[in-house]
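Appendix B: complex inputs.
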Amino acid sequence: MNVTIKDVASLANVAPSTVSRVIADSPRISEATKQKVKQAMEQLGYHPNLNARNLASQSTQAIGLVMPSSKDVGFQNPFFPTVLQGISEGAQEKNYALHMTTGKSEEEILHAVVQMVQGKRVDGIVLLSSKVEDQVISYLIERSFPFVLIGKPYKDIEEITHVDNDNIRAMKEATAYLIGLGHKQIGFIGGSLELIVTSDRQDGYKKALAEAGIEARSEYIIHQKFLREGGQQAVRELMQLEHPPTALVVADDFMALGVLNTLDELGIRVPDDISIVGFNNVLLAEMSRPPLTSVDINIFELGYQASKNLIQMIENSNEPTKRLIISHRLVERLSCSQPSVEKSDKSND
Amino acid sequence: MNVTIKDVASLANVAPSTVSRVIADSPRISEATKQKVKQAMEQLGYHPNLNARNLASQSTQAIGLVMPSSKDVGFQNPFFPTVLQGISEGAQEKNYALHMTTGKSEEEILHAVVQMVQGKRVDGIVLLSSKVEDQVISYLIERSFPFVLIGKPYKDIEEITHVDNDNIRAMKEATAYLIGLGHKQIGFIGGSLELIVTSDRQDGYKKALAEAGIEARSEYIIHQKFLREGGQQAVRELMQLEHPPTALVVADDFMALGVLNTLDELGIRVPDDISIVGFNNVLLAEMSRPPLTSVDINIFELGYQASKNLIQMIENSNEPTKRLIISHRLVERLSCSQPSVEKSDKSND
DNA sequence: TTGTACGCGTTATCAA
DNA sequence: TTGATAACGCGTACAA
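Resulting structure:
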């Protein structure tokens, strides 16, 4: 059998409750017994049974993490491990453990979440992305269970603590950067519009055009759900327009890599023939050819702040709802240049 | 307060133990009461408290996962999310939860593992890679706690259930493939030799050369710890040798991508001037330029078998120690060709 | 087939 | 400052 608090107690000649107090580092306990107990613990190699502790204290020191559905391509995106790293770091600092969950369908995921919550396996939950109708969010709100969302909620913004970038502004700046270089024909390539992050970035793109007095053309906007096949075709069509864009903003570096390859196959050179700005600034961005100018959104920090603030909510029940905006910055590399004369409407000197 | 087994019992007019039996789907319970109880559970929205259950049953339905140290570059490697996906899938199928741990140092990690094990948070552990002197492994063996290792143990091979590829053979085949194309000057680029996987692959490389009667040249072998700066320099030096290699085997696709870029900067064309075979066949391999011929090691399966077999060990205490070898296969893409005449020792027709 | 009673290892309350 | 003692919610031998 395992060594319990009782064993320690009898070895140290004190009551179990005293040992418990020593573990909790209670202030009202004599230094003498404290040492005595600690030594006994050491000697026996004692470690508290967390299940018993959780049961008695009605709290686990753990946070739950809902991962993207395992079929999801998002899993392959370098975004995921990085944000996980951040979450993990924030948890570790406060001595919280991490409990993960996935599922192949919406139902499976919801079920797993309910299990975690009602089963009292975790004290709070970090959510990775919200969808338009999110059952998990509804469920958590209804039970008023602590959670923080990484990304922007589709609704109930005021009631959901979330950590996000200012994606509208970020994409606006990225687009403005291209406009500043002299581009006027700028395309947008993003993922599914069901993701809030996509629509935000698209909004930013449109805003930048509007402010510069450039008319948005619907044929310049592409949504590709998949990274490869579908995307390639879309890019091809885009470049076969009568007036193809001289620059592209792509809402994700991973996608941008696919775009880069398709362009290469078409014999279109970057940045000579077309400029590209990526998004997220994952490690890949600097390893691509040419190295990708990309908007760094501080992925690690996104995760770190999420778990850190979640723990604050857990430990202080009247912590206010927060909206945390993580900073971004454009990292210039070699995928952008001024538009070539032949393709722009008027020449630059 | 939360709804407990007692509430269900009183609503259904039975004893708590009966409810417990219904949950466990005990065979010796009348269908009538079973229905009655189930309905009561439904009506109250009952969910068992897992901490109480774990405490009473002395087992959690959870497996622990030790992730690479958070500072580790390995985190950025697409290998990680994929293997995680596999582990997660294997766990989910058996209704096991996943509990994660990281740490910034060896000590932190060991501490976290001890916490998981002694704290009885998990029933078993999946380890991602072993190092030469691995405290975690020693600890788990000493306590004879169920665990399975993904990769090859440095020692105690017979006593550690592990799931791995036959990396020696896989790399031997990859090298032989290049030899078959006519290459004789073949370089090897791998990570730190402290990782068993690196030394295995290097062994395979040497074996292939030996079998073909080609002398191994030490200046053709490179170990780069980091993906970028260090690696670039190494590749440069390699290509400036009097007789530079006409082909390279690279022990990791992610590294191969860096190599590809360095070669591009040097104006060396792939596969015209030099052929490259990568390893792991991550999504990246098909998105690189040129698409990378790579050895698919079935990363998902590695993770899936790991958790699946771990659960077998947990549920059947005299499950034998196993060594599971996951198959591999060379995926041909466009990064290899026959050596060009000027650089090979004799011409091909 | 079902109920009673105890144990799982802690924490927390109340006395001392 | 410390010690009994009662929860915490569930599983399970044992009894009925």
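Residues 167-296+331-347 of chain A form a domain with the Rossmann fold fold (CATH 3.40.50.2300).
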